[in-house]
Sequence to fold (320 residues):
Amino acid sequence: MITVAKAPPYLAIQDAGRTRFRSAGVPRGGAMDLFAMRAANLMVGNEADSAVLEWALGGGTLSFRSPLSFALVGASARATIAGRSVAPCTLTRAAAGELLVIEQFVTGRFLYIAVSGGFDAPVLLGSRSTYLPGHFGGFEGRLLRTGDQLPIGTARAAPPEGFHCAAELMPRYDNEAVHITRGPQGDVFSEDALRVLSESTHRISSASDRTGYKVDGPSIGAAPGSLPSEAACPGAIQVPGDGHPIILMADAPTVGGYPKIAVVSEADIPIVAQRRPGETLRFEIITIEQSQKALRRRATDLNTIAQLAAGAASARLLHM
Fold:
C-alpha cells in the first residue's frame, strides 16, 4: 500500500490506455509518454503496460506502507527517499514507513513512478487508466488527493537496487526536432504552408493539456473549405481557422473536423509530450517508412531494457 501524503496539482493512475473502444468514442487515454511508462515498469520487473503514477505540475510526497522497489522515469525531478537522493531511471528500494519526496521538476513535463507489482486499480474497458474528461478509470475517475491509499499488485522478481537504464536507450527529450509525416489532408494545403510548418520554430502554448498541445509561431494559414468530421488519433496535427496547429495528445477525441496537415511520428510523441508551455520544437518531414523504422528502434530499446532487467533479476535470485 502507498499513501499520498501530499498530492501535487496533477497526479493520476495511468497505463497504456484503452485501445479497442475508439469506435464507441472512447479515446486511447493512458500515459502521455508511453515509452517512459513502459521503461519504468520494465525496470521494476512489471509487465510493460502495468499501471503507474503520472505526476506533473509540482512537488509532493508519497508514503510507502510496505517495502517496495520503484523507478522514476520521464521528466527529471529533484527527489529524495528518506532524505537520500533518488537517481532517475534507476531502481530504488523503499523500506516500510519511508517517504518519497518529489521536490521540484528540473526538465520535462510528466514523471512516471512505477512500483514493483504495479498499482492495483480496477480494470474498466480493458485499462486501469484515468480518463478525467469522462470521470472514470484510475482512482474513482479523478486526480489523486492527499490521504488517498493506493493498493499494489503482486510483485514479480525485480533487478537489484541500483539497476540503471542507460541514457542511450531513452528518447532524446532535449532534441528540438520532431519528425512528422504528411497528413491525410496534407494535399489541400499549399506548399508554402508545409514550408512554414517545417522550417519555422514553434512554441508550445499555455493552451495545452492531455487533449492537445497548441503551438504558437507563424500561422500556416487555414485550409480552404470545410471538412466533415473523421477519425483522429494522438499525434495528428490539426489546423484550425487561425492557422496555428494543434497536436492531438492522449485524451484527444476520436473524431475531428479540422484538416490534418501532418502526423507526428509515433516514435517522437514522447518528445512532444514532455515539452512544457513556452518550450520550442521544430518539425522535420520524413517518409512513413522512416517513421516506421524509428518506431522499431524504440521497440528494440524497450526490448533491450526488458532483457537487461530480466537478466539482472535472475542474477539477483541466484545470489540470494
Remarks:
- The chain has a mean pLDDT of 94.
- The first helix runs from residue 34 to 43.
- The radius of gyration is 20 Å.
- Residues 2-170 form one domain.
